[in-house]
Amino acid sequence: MRILIVEDDDTQRILLRRIIEKLLCCNVIEAKNGLEGLTKIENESPDAIFLDLWMPLMNGIEVLQKITHTMNKNSVPVVVTSAISDKEIVARVISLGVTDYLLKPFTNKQVNERVIKIQKLISAKVPAVS
Which residues have CB under 8 Å from 38's CB, separation 6+? Predict the structure, then answer.
């Protein structure tokens, strides 16, 4: 399993990486901005994405719009991470088909819950080997 973290804040990115790696035996890929994130999505084909909203070069909403136009909306679970709790912005992000919205500052428990949810979604898509 490959998880992509698109986050411009080094501390947040490292924290997410450590929590995810502790829970899952997976390959964690990192991107520091939206443009780099899109490149990683195209080249690495992640199984799930943790996506910050406010980043340099291209924000998370722009990334979501790009991936929803080029991919099946439900093909890759996306968890948005943001300190923004404005109802209009959250509603717009949810309308773009995200799996979940994780409000910063988040706790290990909250990240664990999202990772478990994503793992279940990914496992449900993979057919069992007979």
Answer: 58, 63, 66, 67
In sequence order, what are the residues at sequence separation of 6 or more whose Cβ sits closer than 8 angstroms to the Cβ of residue 36? 6, 57
Vertex 41: Cα angle to 16 and 106 (nearest 5): 20
Burial 15-48 (b: 16+ CB within 10 A, else e): bbbebbeeebebebbbbbbbbbbbebbeeeebbb
Residue 116, CB half-sphere, CA atoms under 13 Å: how many?
6
User: Rounded to whole angstroms, how far apart are CA atoms 59 and 41?
Assistant: 15
> What is the chain's pLDDT, residue by residue, as a tens digit (130 residues)?
899 999 999 999 999 999 999 888 889 999 999 999 999 999 999 999 999 999 988 999 999 999 877 765 557 899 999 999 999 999 989 988 899 999 999 998 999 999 999 989 888 875 544 4
* pTM for this prediction: 0.90
Q: Are 3 and 28 in contact (CB under 8 A)?
A: yes
